[in-house]
Amino acid sequence: MEINGVEIEDTFAEAFGIQVSRILVTAATKKLAKIAATEATGYGTSVIGCPAEAGIDCYVPPEETPDGRPGYMIMICNMSKKKLDHELLERVGMCLLTAATTAAFDALDDADEKLNVGFKLKFFGDGFEKELNIDGRTVYSVPIMSGDFLVEGEFGIKSGIAGGNFFIMGDSQSSALIAAEAAVDAIGAVEGAITPFPGGVVASGSKVGSNKYKFLGASTNEKMCVTLKNEVEDSDIPADVNGVYEIVIDGASEEAVKEAMKVGITAATKVPGVLKISAGNFGGNLGTCNIKLHEIF
Amino acid sequence: MEINGVEIEDTFAEAFGIQVSRILVTAATKKLAKIAATEATGYGTSVIGCPAEAGIDCYVPPEETPDGRPGYMIMICNMSKKKLDHELLERVGMCLLTAATTAAFDALDDADEKLNVGFKLKFFGDGFEKELNIDGRTVYSVPIMSGDFLVEGEFGIKSGIAGGNFFIMGDSQSSALIAAEAAVDAIGAVEGAITPFPGGVVASGSKVGSNKYKFLGASTNEKMCVTLKNEVEDSDIPADVNGVYEIVIDGASEEAVKEAMKVGITAATKVPGVLKISAGNFGGNLGTCNIKLHEIF
Amino acid sequence: MEINGVEIEDTFAEAFGIQVSRILVTAATKKLAKIAATEATGYGTSVIGCPAEAGIDCYVPPEETPDGRPGYMIMICNMSKKKLDHELLERVGMCLLTAATTAAFDALDDADEKLNVGFKLKFFGDGFEKELNIDGRTVYSVPIMSGDFLVEGEFGIKSGIAGGNFFIMGDSQSSALIAAEAAVDAIGAVEGAITPFPGGVVASGSKVGSNKYKFLGASTNEKMCVTLKNEVEDSDIPADVNGVYEIVIDGASEEAVKEAMKVGITAATKVPGVLKISAGNFGGNLGTCNIKLHEIF
Amino acid sequence: MEINGVEIEDTFAEAFGIQVSRILVTAATKKLAKIAATEATGYGTSVIGCPAEAGIDCYVPPEETPDGRPGYMIMICNMSKKKLDHELLERVGMCLLTAATTAAFDALDDADEKLNVGFKLKFFGDGFEKELNIDGRTVYSVPIMSGDFLVEGEFGIKSGIAGGNFFIMGDSQSSALIAAEAAVDAIGAVEGAITPFPGGVVASGSKVGSNKYKFLGASTNEKMCVTLKNEVEDSDIPADVNGVYEIVIDGASEEAVKEAMKVGITAATKVPGVLKISAGNFGGNLGTCNIKLHEIF
Q1: Looking at CA atoms only, how far is residue C172 from chain B in angstroms?
Q2: Domain ranges of chain B
Q3: A135-159, pLDDT tens digit by residue?
Q4: CATH number at D19-158
Q5: Is the CATH number of domain C2-14+160-292 3.30.390.10?
Q6: DSSP string over A89-134
Q7: pTM of whole model > 0.90?
Q8: Per-residue pLDDT tens for B86-137?
Q9: Which UniProt keywords apply (chains A, B, C, D) (predicted)?
């Protein structure tokens, strides 16, 4: 199968279940909202080593937010509800409450359950906090040094999908990289999907365990390393490929992840020098959902 | 005392000891280095709730880096050496190694000791890693999907200073906020100092414990809240002040923190509507160093 | 009349007719498209002194552009069709054709007429240019050093509106400035409207002619200068106002300008310290359309 | 000759004389200064079609500016002194005076002569302007709506160099593009040098006249077009090259241009896939200075 003349390998992305939250961060200006959203979603590439997977979903203009100010949707995810509860408390409390002019609203449709993050944070007000009702939402107003921080009482969480992915193979490292940026740009327009790695792009790939170091849980996937293509016997890197980047997607639903993969792959194939699109899986028995590349188009 | 016609209160900032690391992140372009540096220093405002205090120190042009590529200096800090070791391993491994085209070099002068972060990360190469010598540094080249990730074997750490600070009081919330941005801009030119909160600016202030909720370790400092100035009896907010923001500084040395406070305060006083500069302390017996505002000028 | 507790003066903005073009600039990535769009719309605040009025209208994700790449809508305007023709030729030829990976498509609905800008630019190909048909558009492919530049043969122009405006008066310069940024953020979501001044914000206001220097066509409007409010006899600055910024809007239609004024004013009134909204006019007999502030809500 | 393993062709860049000005734009914050500097230097790629060649030279931190606020150095250039005078008046008057919180200072060392740009602009104050002395500079304070605009009375100009250049040839369009970005990043650290094209990168190359269309003064240099390498007989594009970008440099001195070429080329050669560096000339008899690539290292 080809898209824009680029081969789409007949394979699948193996994705996993994850608990997802979605928060709208508003502020006085778009720039201030972005600063807060960026801090709150940092150090959030993969739960293998980070305390959460997190990213900015999309921008929301002032007319469409509960408080009439510009905002960014962010998503914070973890496999464990308990850890997600902790992360929400700390990321909202340390990175949004402390940021200039911000407010935080629940923005998850169809939540499976609610975590009372804002209710817990209101106690920071030491009795000076107030309960408000904004458009039917219970919101707490917590006095802080610079003004009042508004935070919704409850944040919804639901079962979502982590690890939707595809590989972009290019004739050079730079071709694959610019195509990866184009893919991230396209996924930016898909609601409910984030690309949690730095700039949305993943430079490294892992395999489970290690052949040489038995104490390791994961190590480089040498068959997918461009600089090893002539060194390892059974490299998966085609001869004309000199650059590979991966896009990893977390989504509030399988549909959001599939849509993100579709528009991301399509955008990537528009960049000259992109030779092939593939995807990562572990044989299909580990993950909760296998997304076949050929079936999303 | 006055600077540019603005009153500098005769008080002091109470700062604390912290373990500091400083890493140079280089990449193919300035923009790519910034993306990686931002991810690696996110979720890093205060160790009260974040796993580290972290931020970008300064930009370094290509001619001045070990690999001739543009880079950003970042600082990652924690009270505990053990926790800092963990944070370095995860933030470098999950946020720099995974970022496009990056390399990571030790950039701390006068280290007290070295942590073998890069040595540990090299095992990810599963035997395909190589040891290089770059300008006398031991650097590991780890093959990853998109190319090779270079990481220095050891990263220095040293006793530094956390919690250098000052308050900017303005006639409006916006005056204090723009002055805070100007202060952060000025501190950007001080080597070895970061402002770890979102955008470098702190919107909230705490007191130890809580008057109302006994289970809390910290709560809002109601005496410093502008919206409570007519509500609490002994407010510290002058009648004409309607906005307060704090700048918090972590530094590799007391000198760097003092210099940052000096240039930051000076820049803040240039903004119309700034009425007073103060600083935060706990009486002077908790911290490791008390920095008197009047003595840094 | 009040919006969010802020007084909206019972006055009107006096706007003028202008010839408007609207171009979609696409590129390999969102960032590259932004770079080209910014260069092409620079030096374009007011035709009083600039060769055009120009700005970025909005971002368009890859799925919604003719070539499946991310893009920005830009608008370039001039009172004179002949001058607009010249500006289109030079701004597209010097700032888009020369920019990395770009293409330029006509994006004006309901054009009054068409200018054959792309047809003229195709000759740069010196015989190597090709005529393509993309979704029914006649597009020229011009070989340049780095690849092929695609440009639509004809760009539509129409009678639009220049000089839609409102003033934001704040208790401090910074309050008015942050409110102005919020207004620009809100207007960013209105299709067919740009705010051509630097960052969308106007720091200065003019009156026709000069009282002191007879050779001047325009001079500062001293009645609207905050630093002169106690110096001139009949200042229009209320006693409690210390900052005024203006938002100037050009639009493809009167409706777009009115919508921009509405959402911009609404967003501005959300910022603490904003005291009053007004608008600029010359008595109502100079412009082609008078937009009453009270009638747009 | 090779730099970092990349062939540097034994050729030269043919550069031209140009009149150069250099202005320091300060503002309340770094971001506000950048907005003004960007507007004032837009539509300024080449005097072939733009009214000036212009760009941002470098950032200057608050401690190093005359008014203690963050600033950007910009350069505005034109072959003709008269046109440069006009451009300075309009770009400063329409793009800096109108921008929020800005001031404009002369920043050219060793000026050949002075243009009284600020003296002319002061009349906008209609008699309310004041003459100040800041660090020995004559500066006018002009009351505008939002406060006072400071502008130095005279701006220096001098004979500088336009059209310093080099070509980056890569195995793919993307390799050459990322290398071009790296080159621009490196040149950013050279004082007195700008890269006036969009993002500093030039996607197109011209030859004098046209083979097919006699009415053209310039047309595409088909021998340097990658998509024509198999179509034209005597292409200058090596068989393995699929992307070419040019960096064009304007400088306040020949030394600045040479230094910019040196650090730019060095940075470009660090990007994987860069195969060759060349430069553009017209035989050597047209320009005022021929810069041999092999002599700058």
Answers
A1: 7
A2: 2-14+160-292, 19-158
A3: 899 999 999 999 999 999 999 999 9
A4: 3.30.70.520
A5: no
A6: HHHIIIIITTSTT-EEEE--SS-SEEE-HHHHHGGGGTT--EEEEE
A7: yes
A8: 999 999 999 999 999 999 999 999 999 999 999 999 999 999 999 999 989 9
A9: Acyltransferase, Cytoplasm, Methanogenesis, One-carbon metabolism, Transferase
